[in-house]
Design brief:
Structural class: alpha/beta
Radius of gyration: 13 Å
Helix content: 25-40%
Distance between the termini: 28 Å
Strand order of the largest sheet: 2-5-1-6-3-4
Number of helices: 5
Number of strands: 6
Length: about 130
């Protein structure tokens, strides 16, 4: 058994398969899940695990070159907006409807137990060299 890092075997395996340019949608419990991408649902109950916990864990494991979030997050969920601004490089904003459309291009969806609106981000993987 792994001693550190991500212990969820489904998530660890999915992350190992990602390559440069692949998208990872990290979403709250209310975000519609697109058909097509692999889904790892971590939601246990409302708020568990939190969006912040999952995002931080993923950012520890992945090289991320940029991200996209819904612009509505700034007014509807300032704490999530601050989290994204401080942790996601080259963060861009689109409407929530555009983010839902873009999420179909993700290779992986990681669903959190977050129960606050607009706690969603589409990460684009980079390379470590």
């Amino acid at each position: 058994m792994k001693k550190a890092g991500i212990l969820n075997r489904h998530l660890a395996g999915a992350l190992a398969e990602l390559g440069h340019g692949d998208g990872v949608l990290v979403c709250d419990a209310g975000m519609p899940i697109p058909a097509g991408p692999r889904v790892v649902d971590l939601a246990f109950r409302a708020g568990v695990p939190s969006f912040a916990e999952v995002l931080d864990g993923l950012l520890d494991e992945l090289v991320v070159e940029s991200g996209t979030a819904a612009r509505e997050v700034r007014s509807a969920n300032p704490s999530a907006a601050g989290l994204l601004d401080s942790r996601v490089p080259a963060l861009g904003f689109v409407t929530h409807e555009e983010l839902k459309a873009l999420s179909g291009s993700a290779r992986l969806v990681v669903r959190t137990g977050e129960a606050r609106p607009y706690a969603n981000v589409l990460l684009r993987c980079g390379v470590f060299f």
